Amino acid sequence: MSADWNPDRYERFRNERSQPFFDLLELTRPVPGGRVIDLGCGTGELTRALHERSRAAETLGIDSSPAMLARAAGFAGGGLRFELADIAAFAPAGPFDLVLSNAALQWLPDHERLLARIARWIAPGGQLAFQVPANADHPSHTVAHEVAREEPFATAMSGYVREWPVLPPERYAELLDGLGFERVHVRLQVYAHRLASTGDTVEWVRGTLLTDYERRLGPELYGAYLERYRERLLAELGDGAPYLYTFKRILAAGTRAGT
Ligand SMILES: C[S@@+](CC[C@H](N)C(=O)[O-])C[C@H]1O[C@@H](n2cnc3c(N)ncnc32)[C@H](O)[C@@H]1O
User: Fold this and answer.
1) From the record, what ranges are coiled-coil (predicted)?
2) Which residues contact 44 (CB under 8 A, 6 or more apart)?
3) Mean pLDDT of 37-52
């Protein structure tokens, strides 16, 4: 299930968030005249970069957030289009030469089955490249779940705490290999984001992980949740400025056998 997204809040750390995308793009080869898809394309600006850099004839960006897609519409044209669709239910009309997903698959469960499904959308010789956050052990994430377990939030969400489906990096290498991918490249990368203060970490996480709790709690209770989250997180990180927010991410790529 997707949360509600706020494009302005998400784009507040635009440069920091786009670096992993360009690192991921470096793991792919252009597919001149080919078909490309971006799963969980968000605001579409990076999908435009993908479309141009891959030299595809057709690129499709899909996302389940109408707010993100409204922003993406401005980047459409010249073979690039966007569609409202849930990755979990998506069934493509034909195979793709490149399937890319940046910072979106962590919203879907059961990555073993998910990758097996996505692999079937790729033409022989086609490529898969994805990036997922691997920062579940950072206080910015652990505190979010600890606060969700506190009252009154726990009762309001019937005990819901977001599960983290991201697998260890080596498991992605095994999975891609088992699914018949060649040239498998998987790495864990630490991005070091210099934020103005520890308080900015709250703003960062509000734009992504916390959207899930925001949607479930409703505006009033979410306000209280956010205050409690800020209080506990700053107690843990200290009230420092600047603050180096270390963020681990997994980048994975491979080429489907068959050419
Ligand atoms: C962190 S943003 C990343 C957006 C973009 N890929 C980027 O790199 O800027 C995650 C995006 O995944 C989308 N998303 C989450 N779950 C999804 C799902 N099940 N199907 C389609 N999109 C989904 C969200 O709506 C959001 O736009």
Assistant:
1) none
2) 61, 68, 69, 71, 72, 73, 74, 75, 76, 82
3) 97
Q: Other C-beta atoms within 10 Å of 241: how many?
A: 10
Q: Which pair of tokens denotes residue 23?
A: 């690192």
Express each pLDDT in 138-187 by its tens digit.
999 999 999 999 999 999 999 999 999 999 999 999 999 999 999 999 99
- For residue 10, the surrounding DSSP H or E stretch is helix 7-10
Rounded Cα distance between 166 and 136, Å, is 9
From CA 174, how far away is CA 51, in angstroms rounded? 29
Q: For ligand 1, which residues put their CB under 6 angstroms from it?
A: 2, 5, 17, 21, 40-42, 46, 62-65, 68, 86-88, 102-104, 107-108, 208
Spatial neighbors of 138 by CB under 8 A, at least 6 apart, are 246, 247, 248
Query: Which pLDDT tens digit goes with each residue over 7-28?
Result: 777 677 778 789 999 999 999 9
User: Could you tell which of 68, 111, 141 is best to mutate to test the pocket of ligand 1, judged by most ligand atoms within 8 Å of the CB?
Assistant: 68
User: What is the residue-averaged pLDDT of the chain?
Assistant: 94
Name 37's bridge partners: 60, 99
DSSP string covering 13-31, please? GHHHHHHHHHHHHTTS---
Residue in the structure block whose two tokens are 């891609």 = 176
- How far apart are alpha carbons 253 and 184 in whole angstroms? 6
Distance from the alpha carbon of residue 63 to the mean position of ligand 1, in angstroms: 6
For atom 8 of ligand 1, the residue with the nearest CA is 102
Which are the contacts of 14, defined by CB distance < 8 A and separation ≥ 6? Answer: none
